[in-house]
Structures are given as C-alpha cells and as structure tokens.
Amino acid sequence: MPATAAALPSFSEAIARFDPVMGMEVHVELGTITKMFCGCSTEFGADPNTQVCPTCLGLPGSLPVVNETAVESAIRIGLALNCQIAEHCRFARKNYFYPDMPKNFQISQYDEPIAYDGWTEVTVDTDQGARTVRIGIERAHMEEDTGKSLHVGGATGRIHGASHSLLDYNRAGIPLIEIVTKPIEVDAELAPAVARAYVSSLRDLIRALGVSDARMELGQMRCDANVSLKPKGTAAFGTRTETKNVNSLRSVERAVTYEIRRQAAVLDTGETIVQETRHWHEDTGETTAGRVKEEAEDYRYFPEPDLVPVAPAREWVDQLRTTLPEPPAERRARLQKEWDFTDLEMRDVVNAGAMDLVEQTIEAGADAAGAKKWWLGEISRTANDRGVALDAAGITPADVARVETLVKEGTLNDKLARQVVEGVLAGEGSPDQVVEARGLAVVSDESALGAAVDEAIAAQPDVAEKIRGGNMGAVGALIGAVMKSTRGQADAKRVRELIIERLTP
Amino acid sequence: MTESSLFKRTAAELAEAVAAGEVSAVEVTGAHLDRIAAVDDAETGVHAFLHVNREQALAAAGEVDAKRAAGEQLGPLAGVPLALKDVITTADMPTTAGSKILEGWQPPYDATITRRMREAGIIILGKTNMDEFAMGSSTENSAFGPTRNPWDLDRIPGGSGGGSSAALASFQAPLAIGTDTGGSIRQPAAVTGTVGVKPTYGGVSRYGLIACASSLDQAGPCARTVLDAALLHSVIGGYDPLDATSIQQPVPDVVAAARRGADGDLSGMRIGVVKELGGEGYQAGVERRFGEAVEVLGKLGAEVVEVSCPHFDYALPAYYLILPSEVSSNLARFDAMRYGLRVGDDGSRSAEEVMNATRGAGFGAEAKRRIILGTYALSSGYYDAYYGQAQKVRTLVTRDFEAAFEQVDVLVSPTTPTTAFPIGEKVDDPLAMYKNDLCTIPSNLAGNASASFPCGLAEEDGMPVGLHVMAPVLADDRLYRIGAALEQALVSEWGGPLLDKVPELETA
Ligand SMILES: [Zn+2]
After folding, report:
1. CATH code of the domain occupying A446-503
2. Which residue among B24, B137, B138, B160 is the active-site one?
3. pLDDT tens by residue, A206-262
4. Residue B481 maps to a domain
C-alpha cells in the first residue's frame, strides 16, 4: 500500500475507475440546560467533575429519568429531516467497558429510534451551477455522552505510554442525537462536496432549530464518515471504512477525498479493504487504521429496564411540526433572491459560512452588498489568520451595520471604514469607540477644510490655473493634496466642491 | 416498661406508646440496640446486621422525642426502630449489598425510601445482611458470613433478605426493609415466621436500591404483624419522580385494609389456589399448613376455587435468563475506577487489568455465575433464543395472572416448597437453591403484588411455613385484608403470635 498521499492515485484517477458510496453519522450535543437523564448542568468549561450527581456518575442505586426537552429536540430534528416519528420507542443499553463510561454501558437507542426514514436536501456548487441533492436519513436517535479521559505523562496525549489518566465526568450524560444517513450515492466527482454540504446544511439546520450551537471545534457536533468504493457501473457495495471524528467542514471534504484515493490504491493492487475504523489526521491530511479488532464488538443491546418507553402524543408532534424553521435549501434560494446575488456570490457567502451573519447584518440596517463585502473581505481574512470561525472573529453583525451607516452618513470614507473594522477586530471596542479613540472621523469642520484647500491651491498655482481654464481633469491633483494633508480624513466629495467653488466663476 | 417488654412489642404499639409519652423514642431505640448487642454476634449469634449505627440511631430518636416535647404531630411510626437491608443507600452508613466489591463504600446520598423513613421519624438501627447483590435464597452468598435463623441457628433465614427477616424473628427490630427480585422478601418471611410484602412493581421507589435486576427488583415492608407491615408500606410507597418506573398513582389504603381484615370477615372474597404450585417437591408439613390456612380463609367467608396458571411452570427458567441478563449489565459499573474495592493498582498495570483483577477478587461465585450467564444470553446470535424467548414467557405468565384475576380476587400457594434448610446443605447445588423461589418468581415477572404470612410450623422439623398471597397490580390492599384476617384467626387459635414459640436465644 502506498505510504504517502503523494503516491496515491489522484482523485480524478480514482473516480475514473470507482464509484464511492458514503454514509454519514453525525453526533450533536443538545443545548439543553440539564443532562439527558439527571438534573446536572451541561454548561461548557466548568472545573472537572463539578457537574455530576449519583445518576451521571452511575453510582450504585441511582436511576435515570428522561429529559423531556431533549426528547422534544430530538423530535424537532427528526421532523426537520422529514422523518417519521416513532409512536412508541425504547431506550436500550449498549454494553462495553471503558473508564470514561460511569456505568460501563451507554443508554442509547437500538432498534427503536425516535425518528426514522427521512430526507434532507443539500446544495452543492458545480461548474454548471448549483445542484440540489437529496440525502436519505436512516434514523436519528437519542443517547447520552460519555465522560472525557485525559492521559497524562505520555508524549502524545494518547493512552499508550501515559503514566496515568484523569477522568472528567462533566460531559457524561449530556444529551446526544445521532443522525445516520442512508447510503449516499451521487456523481463521483461531487461526493466529497456533497459530504461537506450535508454536514454544513445539518449544522445550519440544528442552529436554526435552536437545539444546539453545533460548534464543531467544541465537539458539539462530531462527524464519522463511512466510505466504500465499487467498480464503476456495478451495483454491489464494497467494504466500508469508518473515519472517526472528522471535526470541521473542510476536514469532511478532505477525509472523504483521501479515503476514496486510498481505497482506490488498495483495490488497484488487488487487495481487499479491511472493515475498520480509521483516524483522521488534520495535519497530514491522511487517515490511519484504528486499533484492529479481532471481531466485531458485541454490545449486547437490550431494552433499558430503568426507563419506560417514550410515546410522544401525536398532537404534541403536530404542534412541534409548527415550530420548524425554513429548510436550509429553501432559505438559501429565498435569501439569494432577496439579496439579488449571483450564484457565484451566494456560493462565496455560503462557503464562507457567512449566510447567517450577512442576514443579521442586513437586518441591522446594512445593504446586502455592503454586508457581503465586509464578511467576505476584511473579517474573513482576520478569522483565517487567527484560525477561528467567522462569528468568533470579534465583530458582530450590528458592528458591521454601524460601520456601513457611518459610511452612508459621510462620517467615514472607505479607507477610514476599513481602519474602524480593523480596530473592532483588534478588540478596541465598538465602531464608535474606535472612531473616537483613533480620531478617524472625516474632517467636516468647514473652516479647517477650507484652509487645507486654500493651502493646496497656493502650493500648486499651475494646477489651479488649469482648472480656472476649464480643465476639470486637474481637480484630482488638488483633491489628492488635500487628502494627504488631512491624512485621509476628509470627505473627498466635499473637497472637490470647495475647490470648484473657489476656482470657477 | 422493661427492656424485653419493649423489644417484643409491635411497631404500632411502640409508636402509640412514644406518642402518648409512656416511653421515649430513645428508650425504645436503646432497648433494641441492647438486644442487638446481646444476640447478634457474627460468629455465634444471629448475625442479622452488617453495620449498626448506635450514635446516629439514638440521635434520630432524640429528635423524635424533642418534636414530641415541642408538641409537634408525630407520624404513625415515629420513634420505631427499623432494620434496613444493606442494598438501600444511606448517606450516614456504609452500603455494601453484601459484596466485598463495595466493602466500606459510603454512599453520598439517601435512597428515596431511606429519606421517607427518616422524615416519618423511623429510627434506622443499621444495615442487614443479605446474599451478595440480592442473589441467593439463604444469605449464605453474603461476602460477610451467613445469617442464622432464630428458630434454629443451624438453619438458613432465607434470602436474599435473611438479615432483615432474622432481625424481626429475633426481636432486634419490629420493622425491616427487604427487596424482592424473585422472592427475597417473601421467602425469608416464610422461613422465619414473619410477614413480608412485595408491593406492586413501581409502587415503591427504587431510587437508591442497588439494582440486581431492574425490571424485577421491588423494595417492600417486613414486620412481625400485618398492620405493622401496612403502616411501613404507606410510609415508603408512592410516586417518586426520581424513578421513571414508579407509578403515578396513590398507594392503595393498605392500613385501612389491614384494619378491615382484622375484623375476620372475608365474605365476598374469591380466592384461587394455584394448581401448578404444589404437589411433587413440596414438603408434607408445608402442604399441610398451607391447606389448613386456606381452610381458615374459607371459614372466614372467602370462596375458594382451584385455578390453573399453566405457564408458571416456565417462570423459573425464564427468570434465570432475564435476571442474569440484567445483572450482567447492572454489575458492570463495579470496575474499581470510581468507588469500592480496587485490586492490583500498583502502577504497573493498565486500567483494564485493574478492572479484571478487582472484579475477579470482589465478586463471589454466584455473582460471577450470573454475570457469565447473562453475558452469554445477551450475546448476538443468542439473544433471540434466550433473552427474547424469556420475555415471551414473561408475557405468558402475565396473561395467566390476568386470566386468573378475572375469576378470583387473589391467588394463593405455599410461599416456599420447603421450610428452612440447614446452612451449607445447598451451597454446591445452585439448581436446588433456585427452586426455593418457584412460587414467588411469577409475581416478579408480572409485577403484581404478593406477600407471605405465617401459617404455622411444619411438624417434621418445627420450622415456620408461609402462606403466599398474590394480588393484581395496584391491588396491594387485598394482600393486607387477607393477611390480617388470617393472622387474627390463627393467633386466637394458637393463643398468641407464632413468634411466641421461637426459642429463647442465648444472650451475650
Ligand atoms: Zn448528573
């Protein structure tokens, strides 16, 4: 097997011979106030083991009680994914031993998920324009998260070589929804983009539902990507691998691409794909085999006897149906129309993850072009440099709208506006505070401006003479001089007016 | 009042005496603590208790006395001592479930029933011995040594709640809490001549009950009289939001039922004798006492008929698939990582190795046997044939009950096929041991209410025999009406309670 990515066939070589089949499994941590089966807080960032109780620590004698809000969120996610909602479903125990699992079983759902058999539509951009692809949803089910292990003393932070491990059970029992797609078969060249678009659209949907912030960098949304290949034109699926914890949109696309190339290389040599879990390495852009298991893990699922079945009343489900947000694909189309963006412009906005931010900026008073310009320009660059999400760059949609207003009012010109945004991104305060502190307002004091204009005319009598002679093309040179002397803080339009006032009858 | 007149009295009498100021709760508690010190030696005595909390008990009794002095209204069992099975968590006492793997574990929380009893002014004397994780019928599976039957110290007191039943029969406490997964309240009651009630599943909270098999476990009251059991039942029963399987309905008025039954009139009651629970394998003296008790019920006005429950024959094998399956999962948490025993953690072993070593050293043979059985029964490829089939039998047993309760108000049988056997007789024969629970298991599978009431001594060995009464789900009150009627009839026939005949124990 080739050792490095460089030695693998290219993506286009791989898909010339094989068709990929994908399956995505996404875990979403719900943003409920309390955990799945107890009253402990779910707040992120607390000191280790401070948000625990007998139930989420699995102490002898403790019992779980289902969080109704989590069930409601699960149903709403299911409905938003066009799923059937079970009239009656049970929790099941998934049994396996691991120190970060307090009970050495996880309460999950097995053969009776709360939501099943749905679909969602995602949009991908191709050379021929935007394409909408329908993704089948196999199921969405409820379960509890595990605790977290921190391996101390080893070089890698992994259990191997560590001298000891620390366990934090704050995360144990946080509600999770696992959403599993049906096999995804699309035009081979679109596969990685569809995988990414699916996760991206799911994230938008989860946020629009208000059930989770779905921040992948915080582990609130975690993605496992299943990939298999079959020779072009054949029907039977190949052996799949499951790449675990692919935790950014970009990584989803890269990991799927890499697996397609890697599997093609293996199949090209006549070998077979090993059914295994694989780890994604962000730094090298490669996947590596997980621990080889002798045989498939037997989780000995059985119905959770400590809980009664969940049987959501139909009236409740119908009522929840009325609380659903607009489907992401429809919303994208509507906004593109409202904003009057071209396909290309809209694609840039979506790819930058700026759709919500642009929308909020417009709601705060900016026009569409202005909002897009800031989020895709200055702010995107800063966010990229810092390696943070766009909405974590340090500026709010309201700030951006305020800058636009200041430009419209004539308080700022383009150049000054950029400096204000830069100041806000640098943490210097609100746009108005930055204007104040940096003294960036356009010079609007007429007498000061008049003096600067007189000075420029006196310094360049020959230019002044040309203007008097009717050569308006020469005005620019004087404007430039005034802008220079006011360090850019003059309103160029007003400067022009003042020059013409003085030099023409 | 003398000490002996205090510890021989019923819970109802003691509560009344405390409320009337005839005796203080501290005196009552002290008398029972002294009795424990006199008869409960682990080597030579009854060994009902694993842990006694003298100071806490006296302090709690002092609070009851202070409330009374302040003129506060006291609950109907305030100031009455109780023996708590060591499978129910207590924030002020260790809780071991009879296992080495939990030796010394101090729970950070009270079980719901512990809290309810404290709020009612009941004085918890200590924690009683039991088969490890409630798995056994003799209390010989305790990691801390067997409990002895006060009727004959060479015999078993039943199990798993042998500590609780023995504490009652040796007058160390007038009240006790048991838990019943396949008969662990009723069988010990039967073989010690005491009263034990397994309430309807979901009628008493399981929050804080260390699980054996979650779908079968049920905590319940144990006492020497039917009224005392009813009083305790009404304290611990009722909906608990911390237990999802707890029933959101009021507990039937079991105290009123017990008082009504004591009038000795059972006219209008229809009683079904279960055909399948008797005959071969049943001790002659047990069958004789059972037959006489049914005759008494008839004389009190009940209509007695024979009823067939054909699937009860399959209840035992189904139970021994469902129970180990749940056990294998429930007992997985005992892994040395967070609490309890830890073996082999010398820095050279991985977490997995420490888990293995701890579970190997910490669990007894019966626990291991059931973990292995259950792990196998749930394995993929075997699930349908074992766990799946057993659940079907469970449904059939439930239907047998439903059909029977269309004809009769309650069903009856002997509680156990035999009286208490000698310690050591069946330790190497698990199947013989399992058969102790033949009559009691169907109610755990179906979740209905059942109880055992004393009905005399078998002539061949002089050991107590129990009458088993089974009532429909949420009809726990019927048990008390029948039990109280039988009790008043037999006590007047015998000229006193059965426990008057228990031999005097040697006191230390
Ligand atoms: Zn908790």
Report:
1. 1.10.10
2. B160
3. 999 999 999 998 999 999 999 999 999 899 999 999 999 898 999 999 999 999 999
4. yes
Ligand 1 (ion): residues with CB under 5 Å are A 38, 40, 53, 55-56
Main-chain phi, psi angles of A21, to 5 degrees: -120, 130
User: Which residues of chain A lie closer than 8 angstroms to B218, CB-CB?
Assistant: none
Which residues have CB under 8 Å from B171's CB, separation 6+? Answer: B7, B8, B35, B499
Asked if residue A503 has pLDDT above 90, the reply is no
Using one digit for the tens of pLDDT, what is the confidence trace for B317-333? 999 999 999 999 999 99
Active site annotation includes B85: yes
In this prediction the ipTM stands at: 0.96
CB B431: neighbour CB atoms within 10 A? 9
Based on the structure, what is the number of domains in chain B?
1
User: What's the pLDDT tens digit per position in B391-406?
Assistant: 999 999 999 999 999 9
CATH number at residue B307: 3.90.1300.10
The size of chain A, in residues, is 505
Q: What does the alpha-carbon distance between residue A358 and residue B347 come to, in Å, rounded to a whole number?
A: 56
d(CA B150, CA B37): 15
Q: Catalytic: B205?
A: no
Q: Is residue B322 part of a domain?
A: no
Answer yes or no: is B357 within a domain.
no
Q: State whether B333 and A63 contact (CB < 8 Å).
A: no
B160 is annotated as an active-site residue: yes
Tokens of B84: 């708590």
Give the amino acid at A299.
Y
3-state SS assignment for residue A167: strand
- When pLDDT is cut at 50, 70 and 90, the band that residue A157 belongs to is low
DSSP letter (8 states) at residue B312: G
- The count of residues in chain B is 508
Interchain proximity A95–B109, CB inside 8 Å: no
Among chain B residues, CA nearest to A60: B210
The helix/strand/coil state of A207 is: helix
Q: What is the pLDDT of residue B79?
A: 98
* Structural domain span for residue B258: 3-312+395-501
Nearest to B214 among A165, A301, A305 (CB): A305
Cα B270 to Cα B284: distance, rounded to the nearest angstrom: 26
Distant-in-sequence, close-in-space partners of B403: CB < 8 Å, separation ≥ 6:
none
Between B480 and B5, the more confident residue is B480
